[in-house]
Amino acid sequence: MAARLKGKTILITGASSGIGRSCAFEFAKTSPEDLKLILTARRIDTLNEVAAEIAKVAPGVKVHPVKLDVSKPEEVSSLVESLPQEFRAVDILVNNAGLVKGMDQAPNIKAEDIDIMFSTNVTGLINMTQAILPIFKARSDGGRGDIINIGSIAGREPYQGGSIYCATKAAVRSFTDALRRELISTRIRVIEIDPGQVETEFSIVRFYGDKEKAKKVYEGVEPLTPDDIAEIVVFAAGRRENVVIADTLVFPNHQV
Ligand code: NDP
After folding, report:
1. From which residue to which does any coiled coil extend (predicted)?
2. What's the ipTM?
3. What b/e sequence results for 189-211 when a residue is b if at least 16 CB atoms lie within 10 Å of its CB, and e otherwise?
4. Which domains does the chain have, with CATH numbers?
5. Residue 62 and residue 83 in contact, taking contact as beta carbons nearer than 8 Å
6. Is the CA virtual torsion 153, 185, 97, 165 positive or negative?
7. How many CA atoms within 13 Å lie on the side-chain side of 244?
8. Which of 78, 116, 127, 153 is at 20 to 30 A from 72, Cα to Cα?
9. Which residues, at least 6 apart from 12, have a Cβ–Cβ distance to it below 8 Å?
């Protein structure tokens, strides 16, 4: 697997915490000599800390942290041009940035929270895909690359109190399926990984910082760690080119 990832340039959205951060470390550990990582998120200070930690464990990996809000089309469209030349030939895009705001019955969800969920989880992911696909298609060998979308079990099994978030993740699932079909004659792989419960900052963000409410969600379940998901992301990316891990649901034992 390490040989297949050798020298790759990997762009991860939402790399400042949770699953995205773990993916950065997992890729770096798998191919520590010559990988290039573009780590993006809104919190640039946190990304700089992630970059410094990676430098300690995998000094051969080149890391380029970028402050990027995926929900802002103007930031996404200027991203590629702003990259240093050595980071421009992106091979793998991990569309991971996402969030849930407000767990409540649909009529009670605030308009601004509906907007931030759709503009991040859906439009942001589409914006990123549109920005990076031309790089994949322009390759002299006829086009190649991996798009790895982090969906959710919520996109398959909607639940009460999560209607808007579930709708965003169902949209991700639909977009991913359609994109895979559009690219069927190319060497571009389109992969979706749908986590169940994973303990990350996500759990706190969804209850506006209320840690007690966040803890209750995990009653009776030992949630996954972000590393559990990162291992699967890197496994999918490291398969030989003809193998597409198209669609994977991963949840902790005992999650209903
Ligand atoms: P975290 O809250 O730990 O990470 C979310 C990441 O997304 C952060 O790095 C955050 O960085 C970034 N982010 C949020 N909004 C934006 C934005 N507008 N632009 C750029 N970056 C943004 O949560 P997880 O690691 O758990 O979440 C990662 C993905 O996994 C999400 O898509 C989530 O929906 C999905 N998921 C999570 C599950 C879970 O139980 N945790 C279950 C199923 C799916 P910053 O704040 O610095 O911008």
Report:
1. none
2. 0.99
3. bbbbbbbbbbbbebbeebbeeee
4. 2-250 (3.40.50.720)
5. no
6. negative
7. 21
8. 153
9. 20, 23, 24, 27, 37, 38, 39, 40, 94, 96
Q: Ligand 1 mean position to 183 CA, how many Å?
A: 26
Residue with tokens 């421009």: 88
Q: Which atom of ligand 1 is nearest to the CA of 68?
A: 20
- CA torsion sign for 120, 126, 131, 133 is positive
Those residues whose C-beta lies under 8 Å from the C-beta of residue 121, and which sit 6 or more positions away, are 98, 99, 165, 168, 169, 171, 172
Q: Which amino acid is at 57?
A: V
- Report the greatest alpha carbon distance in the chain: 53
The CA-atom distances, in angstroms, between 142 and each of 11, 124, 170, 208 are: 21, 27, 31, 46
96 lines ligand 1 (CB under 6 A): yes
**pTM score:** 0.97
Q: What is the DSSP letter of 223?
A: P
Q: What's the rounded Cα separation, in Å, for the pair 66 and 38?
A: 7
Whether ligand 1 lies within 6 angstroms of the CB of 238 is answered as: no
Q: If we measure between CA atoms, which residue out of 140, 145, 96 comes closest to residue 121?
A: 96
Instruction: Average pLDDT across each block of 10 residues of the chain; the chain has 256 residues. List them in order.
Output: 91 98 97 92 98 96 98 96 97 97 93 97 98 96 94 96 97 98 96 96 82 81 96 98 96 88
